[in-house]
């Protein structure tokens, strides 16, 4: 083993004493074995978390994670790093609150600094109707034991005085604040889970693209990959953005469209945005990274895409939202912009479930909210893979919920994926 | 991405509204398996990586429904035609009008 030094203040001092020459690779570079008990497809945050919880919570062994590129090269490194559990519907709140609790203990659990920062998530409201909707949401959260505070304009002003409160069209009347929400260093989540899983014997196989799923008599037998055939008793597909492509290899058609979501970072400026702020009159949210860059985003582009890049109209729309909320943004230059592929499901909620193919399990449909769900999605998917039944907080995330009339439509848009 | 409207010529993306897969066909309600077929029609998508026939509505222009053939990996548009000429599914536009 090359990776099993525990990180602590003593390990840092010891390495500093040696001129930092003794650090070892954080996870092993392994070649695939002929067969495993469980193979997770997709080395993103969710896949790595699943592997970690399979090994740590459910005592599973002979686990592999196969990843097309390098781990963390997909959505876990492309999001805007926000964590929150400010949901409304009963099918969602307990799940996201479990995720929040796992975030709160994550760094001790995996012995890795993921820079979990509970700096608060503030959703602004601009009208009486919107205040009432947020009061309802806040009450739903508090009934589920989640923290929520409804702020009036004066209290919002004390938190974020630089907003355009007297905007003629969308004056800011207050906001719903979840103080436990915040941001996490997203790459560190992938690396931390990878390291922790590796320490428990999980094989992380990079540059290994799945090109086929072998199904025999309605049962998944293994995976054809760019590095050869890998047999598997259970296969967990955790490839949000490309779920339809992988599921199609097993002959499945999913209630999902792939869309592109863009994100933006400005040049670094002195700290002034303390937490995460969202504009209620358009789709715009912003936070400031520890490096000083303003991280912001808005709507998905709204058409099917696998291109990992978006188009100008959405950039314009996002920047208009930013200018309406925070006019001083106009003096800041945009530094970077990128796109990620998101699984837009038919009700805006995810899927963690068995599939009609025995031995094949699906974790998909995360829309633009997969990052905050990483720990709970990993835990619930591991639970499903080990107990063959859904975790208590993920019972609503069934693949067949559209057929049975149990859609979880947080935004109330109906089966139009580009509107969720 | 710019879309070549058969009536107006090449126009900016922000004049258009996206509707999705142009090859979905509304099932026959009298079909014995109409229930399952409607679930598939409303909720399931092929969602291909590559060639995709899709419906766009030129809402801020001539208000024509358009079928575009586009590569979802590159956003390249190969061809466009009016939906009424291009075998658009009956009822899709009407659905949208009603919703």
UniProtKB/TrEMBL annotation, chain A:
Keywords: Cytoplasm, FAD, Flavoprotein, FMN, Nucleotide-binding, Oxidoreductase. One of its GO terms (molecular function) is nucleotide binding. GO terms for cellular component: cytoplasm. It catalyses: sarcosine + (6S)-5,6,7,8-tetrahydrofolate + O2 = (6R)-5,10-methylene-5,6,7,8-tetrahydrofolate + glycine + H2O2; sarcosine + O2 + H2O = formaldehyde + glycine + H2O2. GO terms for biological process: tetrahydrofolate metabolic process. PROSITE patterns: RHODANESE_3. The lineage of its organism: Bacteria, Pseudomonadati, Pseudomonadota, Alphaproteobacteria, Hyphomicrobiales. It comes from Candidatus Filomicrobium marinum. It is found in: Cytoplasm. Residues 38-82 form the Rhodanese domain. Its main location: cytoplasm. It comes from the Bacteria. Belongs to the SoxB family. The gene is soxB. This is Sarcosine oxidase subunit beta. It holds the Pfam family DAO. Its cofactor is FAD; FMN. Its EC number is 1.5.3.24.
UniProtKB/TrEMBL annotation, chain B:
InterPro entries: SoxD (IPR006279), SoxD_sf (IPR038561). This is N-methylglutamate dehydrogenase subunit B. It comes from Filomicrobium insigne. The lineage of its organism: Bacteria, Pseudomonadati, Pseudomonadota, Alphaproteobacteria, Hyphomicrobiales.
